[in-house]
Amino acid sequence: MNGTCELCGKENIYCEIHHRIFKSQAVYMRTIKANLAKLCVECHRGNGGVHLNKEADLKLKTNLQHKLTEMFSEKTHYCKDEIREILDCSDFDAVLICKRLCGHRDGYRVDEILIRLMGGRNYI
Predict the structure, then answer these.
(1) Fewer CB near the last or first residue (10 Å), C or N of the chain?
(2) Helix 110-117, helix 91-99: angle, nearest 10
(3) Where are the domains of the chain?
(4) What are phi and psi of 53, to 5 degrees?
(5) Is the pTM for the entire model greater than 0.85?
């Protein structure tokens, strides 16, 4: 697919899709659009690419966490259906996301949602 590489900024080039949060870290993030980054072949699979470069990987994860923070900035708690709607994911993935979250009277806390979406880690 043609596009702009998110890491190096090259435009109108062939790009590959990269999962910022790996499927092994959080399988429920595999189809979340915000988790997908367009990268040129060199930035994705090259010697200095994201799979071999911890700084580049951290940059993509940090960008994702900022993006998710913006997406969940209107309230302090969200219910499963709101999470599904915001992330535009399946009901099954929303259930997986919420499965290990602690439910509160008003729903799930944003900080807990963000850590869950980031594969259990805080990158910022």
Answers:
(1) N
(2) 110
(3) 2-117
(4) -120, 105
(5) yes
